[in-house]
Design goal:
16 strands, globular, alpha+beta, ten-stranded mixed beta sheet, about 280 residues
Length: about 280
Amino acid sequence: MKNVAFIINPFSAQQNYKPFLEALQQRISEPRVYLSESIAGTEKFITDNFENTSVFVAVGGDGTISSVAKKLINTDKILAIFPAGSGNGFSRETNFVENLDDLLEKIVNHQFWEIDTFLVNGELSINVSGTGFDGKVAKEFEKTSRGFINYIKVSLKTYFKFKPIQIHFSSPEFQQHDGKYLMVNVANTRQFGNNAFIAPHASTIDGLAEIVLVQKFSLFYGAGFALKLFSGKLKEDRNLTYLSVPEIEFSVDTNDWHIDGDYREIPSPIHIKVLPKSLRILS
């Protein structure tokens, strides 16, 4: 395990990393561990340990994983995950579970597969990013303590006062979809997290991103939308449109985005570009 580094976000899952760290120290003599306090600190640790490390293990949620992954893009380094976030969408989609023995066995086997990632105006995303309603929710969610229940509370509060965003696509090919939307998601995997499948047919190995256009809907439709969202049965209808693209550009009248669940301010125009087979994942 000398060529393995564990990067832990101590703020994920209400600081529930201590049991993981204790279990790791029981199984491995002097594991190389970094407790991250910032994205900049994580990046420096990876840079300083890049040459003597083949597997970087991200211990945290999708935001933590994304901050580790962006330093490994288009390299021969392998990303591994111990999920410790609130939604864990990306780890669910890449078959990582909260089982340390299972993770260590994968590390010993040292097998990997290559997946796509994508950029939003140059910012790396590995899972699902978006603007509109969920961008606003991400902004408000940052003001609360983490957790699925708080996320639902913030979402409901935001929904009733949220005004649809205006989208304009640069290419004539897509301008028939110009209009007002509740939210626009860009999906590399199927789910946000917590088994909420916003793009049930998305794939990490097809070289395409799923652009999900969601119009603001009635509460009656919303009940069915939520049921289909959590059962993986969403499909295109009058309120929901999917565009499968390797690259796309559009303008939107808000700067509120989330990148893999973490809030960002990103000004228009927005350029989405898929990076095919750009990240090695432990399998």
